[in-house]
Batch of 2 targets.
Target 1
Amino acid sequence: MIALFLATALYVGNNACARCHADIFKTYRDTPMARSSGIISGGLTPGAFQHAASAVSYRIDRSGSVQITTNRQSAEKKLAYFIGSGSAGQSYLWSRNGFLFQAPVTWYAQQGRWDVSPGYEADRVSRWSRPIAFDCLNCHSSQVRLAAGFSNRYAEPPFAQPGVGCERCHGPGSEHVEGRGKMVNPAKLDATRRDSVCAQCHMSGEARETRARKRFEDYRPGALLTDYAAYFVYDGAPALKATSYVEKLAASRCKIASGARMWCGTCHDPHRVPPPAERVSWYRTACLGCHQTAECKRGNDCVSCHMPKGHVEGGGHGVLTDHSIPRIPSHMAAESRDLWKLRPFSPADAGSRELGLAYAEVAARTGDVRQVQEALRLLPDAGQDAQVELRLADLYQRTGNPQRAAVLYRSVLQKDPGSEAALVNLGNLYAAANDFDNAILLWREAIRREPCQPEAARNLQTAYRARKQDRELTDLLANQADCVIE
Ligand code: HEC
Ligand code: HEC
Ligand code: HEC
Ligand code: HEC
Ligand code: HEC
Ligand code: HEC
Ligand code: HEC
């Protein structure tokens, strides 16, 4: 159907490439990227643990069935999909009629054991309610199938191709497999387009803001990622964080001094991971592509000293390689400064709409008033720009201007009736003005769009109790029992 309307090629999946590129197909199949997500069909390592803070016990079997035992009850959940190849760890998703949520259990491969998921350490209950947003699947799988108007409801399975598909780096292949079109070869692109291919998944920054009238997922290999989104980092040494390879490498002397010549492909073959026995010489060869052995005679394992592994900020139990290639190995360690100022990763984004959005996004996390002020200074009049409207509404709400916030939330909902943030917050504003009928309508809609939406659920509970709406309260509590097990 779609092919009738679009002249462009469509996605065909990895298997379609095997016939003509058998060697690449075979080596690629075993890489962590290719195995970065999938449907669970047995094969998990069984295990059990008790989580101290919540006193909840978990027992996981091979098929992905989880027995949960609390002080008050036992329950069972079924893990449907995995995320992460398991080099360091593996996360799991469960499906509630197509709505996907992260499980509180994670497999930590480096320690060879199950434990609570990163960010769940301090929980007092068993939480099955963390929604899986599009971005998560878009980095770990390919051709994600999100239902329109929802933020975490998907077709089953939620992806057409598990893992990172060939076409994520080479573009859709339907014409090429029929001998009619050429694929994109990243190595033959100009440096910015080439680097965009890896950056679509290996860069996060402190904030990523989509350009006006663009959708991030419309980026295709060969295009410029910066036409779709702008990235912002804190002005100061970047911490070692997950998905920060592009930023870290950009901060290295090697990259600064050699420019476009150096990129991810200088040291990595995306189709193949060097086996352990080749690892030292593989990376040494990459270094010696630019350096002379005479420059440093401290040993052959260059990366053990210059690209040390370290624990990731906020990353649970993971350790990742420092891509800033420091001269003195400990140099990048303990940096704790007052980081609040954002720097655009690409200088063209100084003073932009996107910088304003980025300040508003980080301010929503940190509450830092300096960031709030920068956001208000930079954000243009919203016009018909729903992204800006949503951020401005939040800022007005924070700075004591509920009327202006309400106008903007209503305008967002006209364009995007599924906007959870607008539904919940506008509901809160109605409630603050004692208009509970309208507040309840909006909170109910938020729950319909995202069945575990915590703030809407909490507010509805309070409202139903106060208004003695017992039947609605019972239904709501039954709904919530799937989100949190106490
Ligand atoms: C029918 C055989 C056939 C199939 C199927 C096929 N290819 Fe190719 N591919 C070729 C041939 C022949 C070339 C060399 C000529 C060219 O560049 O088109 C090639 C070249 C390429 C190149 C290099 C392009 C360049 O400019 O350096 C890439 C990348 C590529 N293919 C990726 C894929 C992917 C990904 C798939 C699966 C979606 C795929 N191919 C399926 C035959 C095939
Ligand atoms: C569609 C998203 C996506 C794209 C595009 C992508 N990566 Fe990855 N990459 C990932 C994910 C996700 C992982 C983690 C895999 C895991 O262990 O689950 C990863 C892991 C890796 C790893 C470590 C393990 C391995 O597979 O070797 C390297 C190296 C890597 N990527 C290099 C690259 C390079 C180079 C490019 C660009 C040519 C690139 N990636 C493009 C998502 C992506
Ligand atoms: C911007 C792209 C991106 C997003 C969004 C993202 N990841 Fe990742 N993830 C990666 C990459 C790339 C890696 C490899 C290591 C790294 O870069 O930190 C990775 C590593 C992992 C790992 C460890 C994999 C291994 O083999 O050890 C797990 C587990 C994981 N991610 C789960 C998730 C989950 C769950 C979400 C969403 C809730 C998510 N990630 C969101 C790109 C992403
Ligand atoms: C993570 C990104 C990524 C993925 C996934 C990926 N490739 Fe590639 N591919 C590249 C890059 C980068 C190059 C250029 C390598 C170079 O020359 O330095 C390349 C080159 C190629 C080439 C041409 C050069 C050659 O070595 O023959 C073919 C053919 C190809 N890829 C096929 C595939 C197929 C088939 C798959 C899936 C089974 C695949 N690629 C998956 C990034 C990727
Ligand atoms: C694409 C070329 C290139 C590659 C590949 C490369 N470097 Fe460099 N590196 C450079 C350049 C250029 C400089 C700057 C030299 C100068 O300032 O005189 C540099 C500087 C350095 C420095 C000094 C850093 C400082 O802060 O003074 C170290 C250490 C270093 N490289 C180690 C490595 C290691 C280890 C590898 C392999 C993992 C590597 N480089 C790969 C080009 C490269
Ligand atoms: C100068 C060489 C070099 C360059 C350039 C480079 N890497 Fe790496 N990368 C390494 C080394 C060394 C490791 C550690 C491999 C190991 O421990 O086996 C690594 C590991 C990784 C891993 C696996 C997880 C981890 O942290 O150990 C990912 C993902 C990755 N690199 C992504 C990238 C991306 C994306 C780029 C481009 C922005 C890039 N790398 C550029 C040398 C490099
Ligand atoms: C045992 C740890 C270790 C190993 C292994 C090691 N280096 Fe170094 N390297 C250092 C230290 C420490 C310095 C800083 C020396 C100083 O500032 O006096 C350094 C300095 C450098 C410099 C900067 C030299 C200059 O004069 O500016 C480069 C380039 C470099 N190393 C590259 C490499 C390469 C390439 C390899 C692998 C062939 C390697 N190193 C292996 C520890 C190591």
Target 2
Amino acid sequence: MANRSGHKALITGAGQGIGRACAEVLASKGADVVLLDKNPKTLSATAKNIKAMGRQVFTRSLDLTDIQVLKAAVQEAKQEGRIDILVNNAGYDRPGTTAKISSDDFLDVLAIHLVVPFVLIQLLLPDMRIAGWGRVINVSSIYALTGAKAEVAYSTAKAGVIGLTKSVAKEAGPQGVTVNAVLPGLTRTPTIEKFMADKYKQPIVDQTPLGRMGEAEEIASVVAFLASDEASYITAAAIPISGGWGI
Ligand SMILES: NC(=O)c1ccc[n+]([C@@H]2O[C@H](COP(=O)([O-])OP(=O)(O)OC[C@H]3O[C@@H](n4cnc5c(N)ncnc54)[C@H](O)[C@@H]3O)[C@@H](O)[C@H]2O)c1
């Protein structure tokens, strides 16, 4: 992949898992990074790894769904240089069927997966359009395509991410900004390792043509490709990265 020197990428949920992998791969290609996460400990570990690569790092520990705090942090980060790559990755789940999930939990899931990416796009897209170059990569999920039992909020939000992606791609394409979504399948991250029991993982692995879970780095490498000049003719795409599961 081409060198990302001279570019600056903002990654949400950069403290661990897929977000950390995205930040590290983009930095390894030469990008400076803005790292946002609510967990100061994991965030500083990611920052340390990337500073060791000689890249510039701006970190802010915050709750992304506090929109006023988020806007202030992004304004501050932008003062250190234009951000031209946005990776909307942070997310969490509130499992539940339509019968059981509360409307508050449903709204919480929409907030992190849809409202936060929308706000970040609103904040960063104008500069990308003016510059005539920009990359937005939204992390959706294979559940956006399949739906999932007892995951009504999450599946709905992740399907919305695809709608957001395609709409913004149409707005920003004429100015050289590409907007794409990646759709991970079951991917090994700290949250999956800690909270998803093997009895739920194994049936998915059994239905996965490649016969295993994905690794965070396997998602990050596609994100880094979409952020590169080699992906210059790809926009409005929703790319499954699931070992063939759910397609
Ligand atoms: N791991 C999988 O199997 C899988 C599959 C499909 C899609 N995804 C999606 O990929 C993305 C990353 O998943 P992951 O498994 O790496 O997650 P993870 O839980 O391991 O990491 C998520 C990170 O986001 C941060 N975060 C969450 N809410 C936040 C908030 N309100 N404010 C600030 N930071 C916040 C967390 O602190 C954490 O560092 C998510 O959008 C997830 O839905 C993951």
